[in-house]
């Protein structure tokens, strides 16, 4: 007989006692199929880094085009501070609110239904557009590699985009353990490609391979270039907060989520700096600022055939790992919204055999394909960044309200981030700076995105909220908030 895991509720941590059933309930309790708790810290690391590491292989270099290589490095480190704050705040709240949906579940418990609805949309849009960006780069990469090999004939890169999305959706449909174990392996391989390229460029011998003296320039657009570069500086780390989406499938949330998230952030800081150093020493900044696959191009410029092939595989692994993690995260957020009736309850179903949110996974396949074959790469990256940025803004407000409503000592936390409220205030400040940076280059997209989310909020308040079961929203076994 198959062992069916009961769902104690998204807020109950391992080891926490379940509330006793009322004495009058003599009938057998109803069972519902739950997500499996099978993941460990390594899977959390692979989910976070797997989504983000592709940012080192493509996209970040658009920051070079905005302000030059020095501005891009400054933006990289400022964005690193922003995401370190995100990782610390996320680790504290998620290790306490261990439920599918991540920041959506946090907002539902701490701020309220309207904020939770918007955060859920931010997450879905950010991860879906990131998945689309990965599919686009996969198609461009395969097209470039086949062309460089001199193989006669032409290929349709759109076919590879569609194949990537469909194949990874099928893998996620079949089970989270297999999909994230794959992410663990190919993410490690992609990270090793960055390390190998860094060592092959002989950083200990300036001028032997890297030509920083000839190629590195200051600030061609002045200090304003640093502000403009902040837009794509976020691409180095966008998605690390996705570790929280698997909170309901982790064996020990209080340990695995903070450990996997913070270790992932350290990995990305090292990879981002090494990537900038190598690429800025091999390519003129004018070319680097518009390249589609900068690390693969860097491998080609070393003159080593085996290194070119290795970087091709590393870029391919990074895009596949990122797209795979994005499908996982977007489907979990949409599944959680369906389960809570913020979206139609049809999306809240779990597959009876594979124990995955299969309807939410399948739903986004045609949407991702449509954007992949019709939207330029810089546009999909911008849509993803803007959605993530809105989520980070609400995250800073969430931790302030969380500490105010449930001060330290009132509830058990798996992790307590230091120096509160400094990380939240720093996060808010950097978010405002990045909004301004995005407005300078993509003001139309920023206004359009804000209009979309405002319209969605009006729809939720006037139409959808009446289907939400208000009494089921607060699932954590916490004391009454302070002051209520």
TrEMBL record:
GO terms for biological process: transmembrane transport. InterPro entries: AA-permease/SLC12A_dom, APC_superfamily. It is a multi-pass membrane protein. It comes from Methylobacterium oxalidis. The keyword Thylakoid does not apply. It is found in: Membrane. This is Transporter R00093. The chain crosses the membrane at residues 44-64, 70-89, 110-130, 159-177, 184-205, 217-238, 259-278, 309-335, 356-375, 381-402, 422-440, 446-462.
